[in-house]
Design a protein that fits this description.
Layout (H helix, E strand, L loop, with lengths): L1 H32 L4 E16 L6 E13 L6 E14 L5 E3 L6 E2 L12 E3 L2 E10 L5 E3 L16 E11 L2 E2 L4 E7 L7 H4 L3 E6 L4
Antiparallel strand pairs: 1-2, 2-7, 3-4, 3-5, 3-6, 3-9, 7-8, 9-10, 9-11, 11-12
Length: 209
């Protein structure tokens, strides 16, 4: 009987301490036992028809946007100050093989919708990312970046293919490896996704090239 009472007394002392420890260290323990995990997945690879407007001229240009999404596989951990960087590129050569192209600094992709989404975001479940776009009567697929250097050459033209090497970076997460997405286009532009997907192919390359 005395041992039972002693056990109950110990629980009365230890219990509140455990609750307090969980409140203070719960997030840290969860991060250690099940660390943050983000991956980039396809979202809209057939094309999303929209319009670019020019405020100066009042004219608009039709275009097709293509999207990926960053998914938080551990939604109990908020991912702070998250962004996606272009860390490398490779272009298909005449022999069908891909060769790395020079890149001086990483470049940042835009979150969608770009008009109202800041450069870095907190991800709880998922966030849509602009991969790139093609404008009507243009001859290139443009990756959707905050800015491109004057010597940037890795757009995708007619019958070309480029692989973009993406990395997720955040306060509490960095991709363990790049995810590589290949964009191949035959140069034909359509404003209907069902037709456009016959002319552009966007796929993830599982091997880290």
């Amino acid at each position: 009987m005395r041992s039972s009472n002693l056990f109950i007394d110990l629980l009365g002392v230890i219990g509140p301490l455990l609750v307090a420890a969980a409140a203070i260290w719960g997030s840290w323990l969860r991060a250690k036992l099940a660390p943050a995990k983000l991956i980039i997945e396809p979202h809209n690879l057939r094309g999303n028809p929209t319009v670019f407007g020019d405020p100066k001229s009042g004219q608009s240009t039709r275009c097709m946007f293509f999207h990926l999404k960053v998914v938080n596989k551990r939604p109990w951990l908020n991912i702070e100050n998250c962004r996606v960087l272009l860390k490398g590129m490779s272009r298909r050569g005449p022999d069908g093989l891909f060769y790395s192209t020079p890149m001086s600094v990483p470049l940042q992709f835009l979150w969608a919708p770009a008009e109202i989404t800041p450069p870095v975001v907190t991800i709880i479940k998922e966030q849509i990312l602009d991969l790139g776009f093609i404008k009507e009567n243009d001859n290139k697929f443009y990756p959707r970046l905050w800015g491109t250097p004057y010597n940037f050459q890795d757009f995708v033209g007619k019958d070309e293919a480029v692989r973009y090497h993406l990395e997720i970076e955040a306060t509490n997460f960095t991709s363990p490896r790049y995810q590589v997405f290949e964009v191949a286009w035959d140069g034909i532009w359509e404003y209907e996704p069902e037709k456009m997907e016959q002319h552009i192919r966007i796929k993830e390359i599982k091997e880290n090239m």
